[in-house]
């Protein structure tokens, strides 16, 4: 068994859920998360997937340490982009198929498309029935 953790754009969640359901794996856990990639703190670059290009010139941001840094040309801006984190537990033989499905739906070619992590799972137990491992995840 493997755990697939995918961090994706918020607006891609419905399409991703549909793709996973069509692949035969509708069971997942969804969390709202905030984070940043390797954009080195450039706010509009970090948020280009979530905000229109005119965001920085049309919106007056509240004074926060991050906006202070923007206004005073400090080198690092500590803003985080809202994302969705999906967690799926699946048998080893379907992990590749699920990862490809997630990539197909979420790849735009722009920064912020997300990340996918695959980790081993040692065991699983369905609390209600006591089913173990493979039986517990289906």
Structure at a glance:
Helices cover 30% and strands 22% of the residues. It has 6 helices and 4 strands; from the N terminus they run βαβαααβαβα.
Key descriptive features of the protein:
four-stranded antiparallel sheet, alpha+beta, 138 residues, 2 domains, Alpha-Beta Plaits
- In this structure, how is the largest beta sheet organized? 4 strands, antiparallel
Q: What is the residue-averaged pLDDT?
A: 81
Q: Low-confidence stretches at least 5 residues in length (pLDDT < 50)?
A: 43-49
Number of helices: 6
Q: How large a portion of the residues is in β-strands, by DSSP E?
A: 15-25%
CATH class of the largest domain: Alpha Beta
Record the strand order, biggest sheet. 2-3-1-4
Overall shape: it is elongated
CATH architectural name of the largest domain: 2-Layer Sandwich
CATH topology of the largest domain: Alpha-Beta Plaits
Order of helices and strands: EHEHHHEHEH
For the termini, the CA-CA separation is 11 Å
Q: Helix proportion of residues, in percent? A: 25-40%
Explain this structure.
The chain is an alpha+beta fold. The chain has 2 domains: 1-36 and 81-138, Alpha-Beta Plaits (2-Layer Sandwich), CATH 3.30.70; 37-79, no CATH class. It contains 6 helices and 4 strands; from the N terminus they run E-H-E-H-H-H-E-H-E-H. The protein has helices spanning 13-22, 43-46, 55-58, 65-71, 95-106, 133-137, and strands spanning 2-8, 29-35, 81-90, 115-120. The N and C termini lie close together (11 Å).
Describe how the helices and strands are arranged.
Elements: E1 2-8, H1 13-22, E2 29-35, H2 43-46, H3 55-58, H4 65-71, E3 81-90, H5 95-106, E4 115-120, H6 133-137
Antiparallel strand pairs: 1-3, 1-4, 2-3
Helix pairs in contact: 1-5
